[in-house]
Amino acid sequence: MIAVVGATLIDGSGRVPGEPATVIVDEGQVAGVGLARTTPLPPGATVIDARDKFLTPGLVDMHVHVHSPDEWHPEIFLAAGVTTVLDLGGQLHDVAAYRALVDSGARPGPRILFTGPMLEEGETYPGFAGFCRRFDAARTEAEVDALADAGVDGIKLYVTVRPDTARRACTRAHARGLPVFMHQHATWGAEAALAGVDSVEHVNVFGQLAPEGFWLAEPAKLNPFEYGGWLWRWLGDLDPRSDAVRRLYDGLIAAGTALDPTLVLYAARPGAIGDDVGDTSMDDPARTRLLPLLPAPVAKELTARWAERRDAAVGASEAAKHRMRRAWDNILTLVGGFQRAGGVVLAGTDCPNVAIVSGFSLHRELELLVRAGLSPMEAIMAATRRPAERLGKRDVFGTIAPGRAADLLLLAADPLADIRNIRRIERVIARGIVHEPDRLLAGLRKS
Ligand SMILES: [Zn+2]
User: Fold this and answer.
1) Is residue 338, in this structure, part of any structural domain at all?
2) Which pLDDT does position 149 carry in this prediction?
């Protein structure tokens, strides 16, 4: 039994913290929460003195791809305080093996939820084919059933899925108790909401707002990178407070569709790099102490990608950089506006995609969400309570309350005063087991 005594409790519910609290942990769960001055300590409990410190729920990254523990160490997530991840695209045998390894205790790591392969009804983009499964749209229900029977935690629809197919997939998934996540492309903007999608990934949802003359006749013929590049060509000229934006927000909000913008994925565009991209100290190869801990091929790719971005920024014209900056400002304004309009924002990173380091990139995502206009409390909820609700697991994790998993972060400074304090992690408790971030990282260095 563990007693964490005297911390300011930011319990994930959104409640304003009150006087110092005591949290009792037993058998992997929160057994009790009360005021520190009145809550008795159970005899024999290991006491963690948390006076003048801050306690939040463990963080959830709602968009990762963690296919192999050899390539992506689960310990890095825990060291960053990420106690749950949602894998939104990987082959079932890979993600199931990863989860089994962590659950067996052989490697410390986060709770892993997954969707299995990203479903494609059309030609799959070769770069991501390894994460996809192409299916016959006529057998949509059978495809969803097969994944549900295999024990997935949600369904991921990918770029070539059309509105009709999306609607059928959502209907079946919801009947099986599963949420649906979509990387949009052939199903535009609020069409995904109408189809019943529970969360739209990245900022592709804003593709619906492209001005005439920039419309894509057949978006499904572009690969995801081309699509990403296309957004940047006109997003800078968009009025983020226009009626069209308002209507898009309304469509998403009326359907209860959340937005997982994965801002870190957009933060390092030429022109944006170095300007306004949050604290990159944990994933910029020139600054991070993580580099020696990463598997060699991953470290090499990370270094190469960052170099590419720096070179592109140097070579870009001032006009191009200016356009990128305006587009980046608009992305932030659109995400903040969605939250202010009453939308649900989720925190995800898409790590280890495009040089985004596991775990630590979520801190940067939270900083960027605050820059977009969320309060630090809302940003913390986007990585705690909101993900749990979206996944139908609100009784399991995401908030600190009796009966929930004991997934806790002990911070040396107040993240509500400055969201960057989410990096000042002293201890991580994951399913009741206490970890010290530096030890986790040091352990990796030896292996
Ligand atoms: Zn992804």
Assistant:
1) yes
2) 98
265, part of any domain? yes
> Residue 194 maps to which CATH number?
3.20.20.140
pLDDT lower than 50: segments of the chain? none
How far does the centroid of ligand 1 lie from the alpha carbon of residue 118, in Å? 9
- 385 lies in a domain? yes
The predicted pLDDT at position 274 comes to 61
pLDDT (tens digit, 9 = 90+) per residue, 263-272?
A: 998 887 766 5
Distance 45 CA to ligand 1 centre (A): 42
Distance from residue 182's CA to the centre of ligand 1 (Å)? 10
Q: How far is the CA of 390 from the centre of ligand 1 (A)?
A: 17
pLDDT of residue 52: 98
Domain membership flag for residue 384: yes
Distance 222 CA to ligand 1 centre (A): 17
pLDDT 10s digits, 230-260: 888 899 999 999 999 999 999 999 999 999 9
| Residue numbers of the domain that contains 346 | 58-390
What pLDDT digit, counting tens, does each position of 128-182 carry?
888 999 999 999 999 999 999 999 999 999 999 999 999 999 999 999 999 999 9
User: Which of 239, 290, 338 has the alpha carbon at shortest distance from 442?
Assistant: 290
How far away, in angstroms, is 348 Cα from ligand 1 center? 9
Which class for 333: exposed (0-12), middle (13-18), buried (19 or more C-beta within 10 A)?
middle
pTM confidence score? 0.96
How many structural domains comprise the chain? 1
Ligand 1 centroid to residue 74 C-alpha, Å: 17
